[in-house]
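Hi C.,

You asked whether I'd gotten around to modeling the 949-residue construct. I have! Everything is below, sequence then structure, no commentary in between.
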Amino acid sequence: MTINSASQKGDKKLRILIVSENSAYATSLKKVFEGNGFRANICLVADDVTNLLVTFDAHLVFVEQNLGDKSGIELIRRLKNFNPNLKCILIAAHPDLESSVEAFRQGASDFLQQPIAEEDLLLAIDRCMGHHLHKGEMDQSIDELGGRHHDIINTGKSLTETLKWMDEAQRLGQVGHWVWDEVEDRELVASRESLRVADTLHLAKSPTWDEFLEKLHPEDQERVDRELREASDTGARYECEYRIILQDGGIRYVVERGEPVFGDSGTLIQTLGTVQDVTEHREREQALRESEERYKDAAFKAKLGHWVYDEVADKLIYCSEEIARIHGMAPDEMFAKLDHSDKGIERLHPEDREEYKKGTKAAQKNPPPYDIEYRIIRPDGEIRFVRETGDPDYDRTDAMVLSHGTMQDITEQKLLHEELMNAAEKADIANHAKSEFLAMMSHEIRTPINAVLGFLDLLIETHLDEEQTKFAKSGQLSADLLLEIINDILDFVKMEAGRLDFYKERFELRNLAEAVIDVLSVRAKEKEITIEVDIEPGTPRYLEGDPGRIRQILINLANNAIKFTDVGGVKIVISSERETEKEATLRFEVTDTGIGIGKEHHDELFAEFTTLSPSYTHKFGGTGLGLAISKRLVEMMNGNIDFSSQKGKGSTFWFNITLPKSTVSEVGLKPRKPASTFGSNLSNLSGSVLLAEDNPANQMVARTMLEKAGLTVSVAKNGLEVLDAVNLRNYDLILMDVGMPKMNGIEATRAIRQLDPTVAKIPIIAMTAHVMSGDRESLLNQGIDDYLSKPCSKKDLLKMVHKWLNVENNDLRFPSAQENHNKFGNQNIALETIDHNTLIQLGEDTDPGMLPTLIDAFIANINDRMAAINQAVSALDMRQLAEDAHSLKGSSATFGVVSLNRLAAELEIAARKEDLAFIRLNSQRIADECEATKIGLRKFLEGHRGTSN
């Protein structure tokens, strides 16, 4: 269907159809079009548009994009199908790229974005329908716009191109122009940008002056009205800034500039001007002001100021308020007094002036910023600590022209640091004093306890009646508990001081667990409860770690369990949580059927010096350190510890630790001291012992125990008497108290090791209660052969003596290298160099069937150790030689190899003394002894296998 050509010829005016569901908006557009000489009609129902096209015969259709449930783009497609020559313009409130492209694809000739300025409507009509319009019609429309573009048209450029260029330029500059008709009080001309800035694009007609004022911020209305009226009255140009309240509630900052225009009669007829959107500029200014305020506030709080110094003029050219405050001066005073002259340096503390000069001069040679601290003296005499940083600026000739930097008042930090340092120093002194006090008290308390326990042991061995025996055992139990408390406190102090050491050695898990049972079984029996251990199948048997610390934790937990259990028993369960080829995570559980722990006490259970309540302490005793120590020990081994308990239903304490796995042969290589190895001979010993002890009670106890075991005992009260004694006669063993008057045990030991070799090789056993002064390794490094902690039981004392005495042969003379060669060269082995009883006992303590495996492993160890000894001798590595000899000494004692044990002990002493002559002379002797030992052990195995068969 086509447009009626007769109608078109009869009516030359352009006919425009407006399709919109908004009647008011459509009406406003209709008035604009008719006001510019066009004919216009409205269609409010999209489905009626084709009928209206036929009757109205429109040349151009404006279609709103949103037509309720209809789409304006879809309608344009229908209209173009209806009449391909019809021009359509889409009006969109929020156009996007996708919808715009789709509109053009469906046949739209142009699109406009709401709100639309009047000139934009005319430009769109010109773009679409310019060839249909007579020049007179367009000129008339332009003239009716108020003559705004008359000059532009006269330039010969097209109206479309010129208006588009002006609109874009004003948009970029955010500056719009306008002409106000003062006679009719209305806006005569306004560019699109002017309408946008004034937020009036949406209005159908320009506002009056009063309507314009209503759009301004209430605080600006009266001022703007007054200033613009004054400009009109005086005829002067004006510049005024105000705020406009936008439709969405926002605020726009506007700068308006204007100039009144007067007619020939002097009457005000127009005002010409511009409006500029300065919102972003004002917001930046406000943000800058706020930033400056925050910076000033931060500088004030941090007591940090900044400065700039003119090095050429030698004067301060800028300093912040904070620098003036730091100096206690006004800013003007700072400019007058701060320079590099002697007068300017007078503000510094006299002791800091030279360092300050050096620091600033160094900055001139070294471009990186300098950073120095010094003291200043304020005019009122107050001293402040400051930190100054500076950085020089250079010109093209590398001459320093400026320097700039910061200054911070660090007085409070300095004073606080000094206080903290003083407090830390006092704490260190106090902590050291505490440790020394506890070490001293340890010695002082342990010394009488040693005597008490010794006398009680001796008393119990006498003929006592039932009541006397009961009293003696009760006293012995009380002394044991007291010793346990002291040990707990000392372990805790060691932990606090970071002096608690962990050792790494291979051990068998069942032996460790059974040792715990052995220690606690007496207490469990006294309470008539059971104590047992269960190692779950699949748990690794051989491990590597510190068995002593693990045993200590288990004893602490199990001892607690026994203490709070009156009926039932205590069970230790050991299992494997995780296991790899190289390590295993073990879980140790100690479960009891005791009184349990209420929930109210759970959180405080592992706290230091904490017991459940005073009534528990009175009833059960203890320091409250056992669990705290256990927790620290587990954590130091990178494990976890926890518990579960219900009041009246018992408790389960558990911990897990990860340990490297070992093998049976590796365990067999480690020095071992089976408790039963020495059991049968402890009451029938022979030999001479020198007892070095200054305490009379301890002298009596130890002497009685040793003599009753069959030993000959001499007593020395100090180190000097020890030296006199060893020079008068030969002793098989020296028991050396470490803390003695005049000359202590360590000093006496060093002196003995410097004497004649026959005397120097006497085994010396350290006996000390001063456990904080050093561990076993430190004693061994000073010539001591072994270590006994006081107080010690009779059994421990006699076991140690038996270990170091050759019961069968007290002759300490070593055979010469030639004697060894003669003795072993023809394979004539003197089997008495090997204690067969020790080997047999070793088999009983482990497994008789495993004894050959253990001996084979020991022989392999002899080969490895001998190779290491030879290498250490060649390299003159005394430390390594002493370690290897010490290891060989221990393992040979475990396997009852008496001669090798003694020779290794002598070699260890020589290595610690760095006696090179002795080492070179006797290194072959130990090699020969090793060969003899291997032959002797193989012969023993032959006999052992024959007996077994």
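If it helps when you're writing up: The longest helix spans residues 411-460.

Thanks,
B.
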